[in-house]
Amino acid sequence: MDLKILEKETRRIAADIIERSAIKKDQIFVLGLSSSEVAGGLIGKNSNLEIGEVIVKTIMEEVAKSGVYLAVQGCEHINRALVVERAAAESKGLEVVNVLPTVHAGGSGQLAAFKFMTDPVEVEEVTADAGLDIGDTSIGMHVKRVQVPLIPLERELGGAHVTALASRPKLVGGARAQHSQDPIRKF
């Protein structure tokens, strides 16, 4: 796998989803990543540290441009805990948990987050405002309601299926209620 092409495609997908999700400064963007799927294998069967590092570092750079916090979801072997910067955990009141990711418990994305973040910690859960799912890792549990699916520019990254979610405020009221324009779908 050509890592330069992977970086370029990751950057393009991430920048597009960050822009279209209407995520704002100090909000949380969650990343679910199966490097096994990106490499063309089955989720959880062949984690690839280089792929994890390229994808996480690239997405960290893209969210930093908007002042958005990144949360990197781990696999089911650590109950889908997430790596965030300690500053994000403190500012959002997130509960820090004690687990250190490994290649087969947390995955390559979490190991990359620990490598590239300034002061990484694991938290049990977040309520993110948007996110990117690379390899069908099921990030929906960490994105607040109402979830709005976004179709990425590229539906595959390497061999992995790519999906994305944004969130918008709930529409409330009866027949006479009016609502502001949807910042995501802009219709």
From TrEMBL:
Organism ancestry: Bacteria, Bacillati, Bacillota, Bacilli, Lactobacillales
Stated name of the protein: UPF0340 protein A0O21_07865
Source species: Streptococcus pantholopis
Family: Belongs to the UPF0340 family.
Highest taxon, organism lineage: Bacteria
InterPro entries: Antibiotic_NAT-like, DUF436
TM segment ranges: none
